[in-house]
Each structure stands twice: as structure tokens, then as C-alpha cells.
Specification:
- With 192 residues, the protein is α/β, with parallel strands linked by helices.
- The chain contains 4 helices and 9 strands, in the order βαβαβββαββββα.
- 23% of the residues lie in helices and 30% in strands.
- The strands form 2 sheets. Strands 4-3-2-5-6-7 form a 6-stranded mixed β-sheet, with helices on both faces. A 3-stranded antiparallel β-sheet has the order 1-9-8.
- The longest helix is centred in the N-terminal third of the chain and has 19 residues.
- The protein binds guanosine-5'-monophosphate (5GP) and magnesium ion.
- Guanosine-5'-monophosphate (5GP) binds next to β5, α3 and β8.
Length: 192
């Protein structure tokens, strides 16, 4: 019999904290592979700078980068919201961009596009540095919660309005190391 596309049940070690697996490791790997092929063909022959947002992109970025057979430069912007749990908050820059992006093609990479507040702010900062063009790549997109008029050029997965963790995404700095994207047990967020 054909196996289901992905198992909903998290691995044993995570069952106390994770309610279900939303995107399995295998699906992540396949999707990142196809995003990489698309990006490769779109930026071939360009002077590419990848600008990734810390810290949520750590796994997605590492997987994506090694699949890009293109010369490129890499830099990071650190942003942190005041929020502690799952709610919104203000934004602080914890690391400024160092590379010169003027006249270059920039691919801005983030973990998840939610309200769009973060990327709208970062995009405005980047555009002031006069790159040739800026494209946005996010692993996850939650269009239901959008407050800014902003869309990503490359989206790994469009997901419903649920708080997710894993594959780089955290809750209180935990769960970034899960190899899949999952949903937390409500009891975890209540403990906040
Ligand atoms: P935005 O500014 O688009 O509302 O939020 C973007 C940031 O909020 C993301 O980079 C991420 O850090 C955080 N965020 C939004 N939704 C989620 C989610 O479902 N899970 C986690 N772990 N972080 C999220
Ligand atoms: Mg983030």
C-alpha cells in the first residue's frame, strides 16, 4: 500500500512538546531542492548577494546554499522582536549588513512571512543601499496574517495561521533544531 505523503506523528523524542508534524523532513528537502533550481536559473550570470535574516533561517539557508551552484556572496542582518512568546512586538536590529549591495542582485532570505512587518522594514533599509534588484525568498508564508502589502518571490510552503516551530523556527529560542516543521502542544504556549 502507498504510504501517506508525510507522517503527522512527531518522532518519539518530541511527542511531549510537538502536537504534529506539519512539514516532514523529506518534503522540506524536496522543496528546498526545487527552490534552489529556480533561484539558480533566475540569478545565473548575476552578481548575487544573499542576505539572510538571523536566526530563523539557519537550517533553511544551510540547506539552500549548498544546493546553489552559483558564485555568490553571503551576509546577514540580525533582527529581533521584543516579543517573547507568539505575539507581535517591536523590532530591533542586532546585526547590520556589512557587504556592499549597490548595483548587485540581492536575494533576501527569511524563515517565515507572517504580518510582513519585519520584511517591510528590512526591505526599506536594503533599497536605500541601491541594489540593482531585491527578490524575497521565504521558507514559509502565512498569507492570512498579512498587514503589509508584500509578497515573496520564492515561497517554500504556504501554511495556515498556526504557530510553527522547527527547521530553524523557535519558540522562546527552543525547537530550532527539529528537522521538521511542527505544531506545538497548546500546553507549551500556555506555560509561556
Ligand atoms: P512578521 O514581521 O512577518 O509578522 O513576522 C516575521 C517573524 O515572526 C519571523 O521571522 C519569525 O521570527 C516570527 N514568526 C512569525 N510566525 C511565526 C511562527 O509561526 N513560528 C515562529 N517560530 N516564528 C514566527
Ligand atoms: Mg525570525
Amino acid at each position: 500500500m502507498k504510504k501517506a505523503a508525510h507522517s503527522q506523528r512527531p518522532p518519539q523524542a518530541w511527542r511531549r512538546d510537538i502536537r504534529s508534524v506539519l512539514i516532514s523532513r523529506a518534503r522540506l528537502a524536496r522543496r528546498v531542492q526545487s527552490l534552489a533550481r529556480q533561484i539558480e536559473s533566475d540569478f545565473s550570470g548575476r552578481d548575487l548577494v544573499i542576505v539572510a535574516l538571523l536566526n530563523g533561517t539557519v537550517m533553511f539557508l544551510a540547506d539552500l546554499l549548498r544546493l546553489l551552484s552559483l558564485p555568490l556572496r553571503l551576509d546577514f542582518i540580525g533582527v529581533s522582536s521584543y516579543r517573547e512568546g507568539t505575539g507581535p512586538g517591536g523590532l530591533i536590529i542586532t546585526k547590520e549588513l556589512r557587504l556592499d549591495v549597490r548595483g548587485r542582485d540581492v536575494l533576501l532570505v527569511d524563515d517565515i512571512l507572517d504580518t510582513g512587518r519585519t520584511l517591510a522594514r528590512v526591505l526599506a533599509k536594503l533599497r536605500a543601499l541601491q541594489p540593482r534588484r531585491v527578490k524575497i525568498c521565504v521558507l514559509l508564508d502565512k498569507p492570512a496574517r498579512r498587514l503589509e502589502d508584500l509578497a515573496a518571490d520564492y515561497v517554500g510552503f504556504t501554511i495556515p495561521d498556526e504557530f510553527v516551530v522547527g527547521y530553524g523556527l523557535d519558540y522562546g529560542e527552543k525547537y530550532r533544531n527539529l528537522p521538521f516543521v511542527g505544531l506545538l502542544h497548546p500546553k507549551i504556549t500556555r506555560r509561556g
